[in-house]
Amino acid sequence: MAEDLEDRRPPVILSVAIFVVFAGTVYTSINLPQGLAPVDPVILGVCLYSLLAMTHRGSPATSGFVRLLPWFWCILLGSFLGMAGVGIPAWATSNLVRTVFALLTFVCLWHILIAARLQWYALAGTVAGFTFTCGMLIAQSGGARGQAYFPHANYAGHYCAMAAVVLIAAARRWYLKLLALAGLLIALQTTSSFGAMAMSVAMLTVYVVRALTRNTAILATGLAILAIGGLFLATPQAADLVPEDGTSWTISETISEQRFDRSQSGRLKIWGDALEAFRESPLGVGPDGVRQREVAVLNGFYLEIHSDPLGYLVERGVIGLIGFIGLWATLFAVARKNGVARVLIVGLLVSGLFRETMHYRHMWSLLALGFAVDHLRSRREEAAEDADEPDEPDPVPAPLAPEDRYFPGVAR
């Protein structure tokens, strides 16, 4: 049933399901049990179909999954060791199931998008979700941080940062790229998400570094600008740009130095409490244990750790952290060298430093789309190279030796 997906048109219901998955990840604010969202049943159905397809035909996703398996096992082992002191409570089991489901979603979407050539349906769903989210953020702009239909403004900011990069990379017209960039700027301003801003800067830096390494003239210009800027900042006149009254910078009501300082100091407080718990429980406090076991408290609320690498260390121990690092290192290694997937990975790693993002369904689905877009581009480049190569002439046969007249067919 699924072995020849790449050789024929995909089923209509599968195409529609892919569109729904990528458009529906923006609607997750509805309160369902265990953090579920309306789109999750569709994601589960696509995953089941993709797993069936994997049994018939391999892909870069299946080979990548084999390379990721050791790190999956490290994460699972660290999770169970972290639960050793509290048994297997429902909250830890729920968190672990969400982790497995998130990683399964990524691998399955990665495979089915490639095997069934569904990249364009996924991109169409992303356009719909991105446009809807930006429209809702504009409608909600009125002083408070916009969040569209995400549970939190940071979720919306992270989604728009990733979606914009994917759409800019996939778009073939310059005005489409500008529209995606405009949507990203709207999202950054309305959500006021410092995490999304850090993601955007990190991903932009990757593109800048690529451009500098490919073009010597651009590299020389960049170095000259840095040198001139450094000389200017070293002059006494540069001090006139700094206010002497000690006032703080403010861009808007929600983007200001005071809010940034509150966010930074709050995280430092949470991280300090979590590290103290790690000293007492080096095997970890279990998945979601920082919040459920009331490890970190801020302003009277028990919160999650707000950092993926630190969270894996504190909740899953050193083994879990090794699995986390190995997972991302392997993903970066299997991604296309100059593709959009590596750009997304850099952005996700930066956002994960300041927030727990491993359960974000939109994160994993867009990363899978990034891998699929890179695969499609690689296939096109290979086809173009094959078309440009001239056909080699048929080899000229060597002249035959004269036959013996007494024994026909036998050369002298």
Question: How are the elements arranged and paired?
Answer:
Elements: H1 12-24, H2 40-54, H3 60-82, H4 90-115, H5 119-140, H6 153-170, H7 174-191, H8 194-214, H9 216-233, H10 257-280, H11 289-292, E1 297-298, E2 301-302, H12 308-334, H13 340-352, H14 361-388
Antiparallel strand pairs: 1-2
Helix pairs in contact: 1-2, 1-5, 2-4, 3-4, 3-12, 4-14, 5-6, 5-7, 5-14, 6-7, 6-8, 6-13, 6-14, 8-9, 8-13, 10-12, 12-13, 13-14
> What is the overall silhouette?
globular
Q: List the strand order in the largest sheet.
A: 1-2
Mean pLDDT: 82
Terminal residue distance? 60 Å
Uncertain regions: pLDDT < 50 for 5+ in a row?
Answer: 231-235, 403-412
Strand content: under 5%
Q: What's the structural domain tally?
A: 1
Strand segment tally: 2
Q: Bin the helical content.
A: 55-70%
Largest sheet: 2 strands, antiparallel
Radius of gyration: 27 Å
Task: Please provide the ordered H/E string of secondary-structure elements.
Answer: HHHHHHHHHHHEEHHH
Summarize the structure.
The protein has 14 helices and two strands. It is an all-alpha fold and 412 residues long. It has a two-stranded antiparallel sheet with strand order 1-2.
Please give a structural write-up.
By secondary structure, the chain is mainly alpha-helical. It has one domain. It is 66% helix and 1% strand. It contains 14 helices and two strands, in the order H-H-H-H-H-H-H-H-H-H-H-E-E-H-H-H. Helix 6 packs parallel to helix 8 (194-214) and helix 12 runs antiparallel to helix 13 (340-352). It is globular, with a radius of gyration of 27 Å.
